[in-house]
Amino acid sequence: MDLTPAQLATAARCQEAEGFAQERLVRPQRALHRVQWPGGGVEFHPSHGEWIRILDSNGFVVEALHELYAPADGQTHQYYDIATAQWAMQWPVEDLWGRAPHPLTPNGHAGDGAGRTSRSRPAHRGDGTPEEITLSG
């Protein structure tokens, strides 16, 4: 399992080094791949599609994607600086990814160490129709 900040939370988060996510987007989604905070520090926020490609090219298959919200009775705690509980009740603040070694990689290993696995995943089926990817949440 991997826990990552939700892209929406990052897109809505204040441009300053500190501050909670707002109820409007303050950065474009394409600019989230690399976010440099004014107070220092850099974060990387690949899109869901990019995460799937990264995991697949390194020998993993996505088994589940859970978008995490605050519970209805949640309270904003000083530990959390990304979003208030009120915000996180409406939009996901974190994504929980379930992944496993791809069953077609040799011995269940994650590729050859160079980001290549024993198979290449086509974007379309042989008949030209898009391949379906099912994520549970």
The mean pLDDT is 78
Question: From the helix content, strand content and strand pairing, which structural class follows?
Answer: alpha+beta
SSE order, as H and E? EHEEHEHE
Strand order, main sheet: write it out.
1-5-4
Care to describe what's here?
By secondary structure, the chain is an alpha+beta fold. It contains three helices and five strands; from the N terminus they run E-H-E-E-H-E-H-E.
Brief digest:
The chain is an alpha+beta fold. It has helices spanning 7-12, 48-57, 85-90, and strands spanning 2-5, 35-36, 42-43, 60-68, 94-101. It has 3 helices and 5 strands; from the N terminus they run βαββαβαβ.
Write the layout of secondary structure elements.
Blueprint lengths: L1 E4 L1 H6 L22 E2 L5 E2 L4 H10 L2 E9 L16 H6 L3 E8 L36
Antiparallel strand pairs: 1-5, 2-3, 4-5
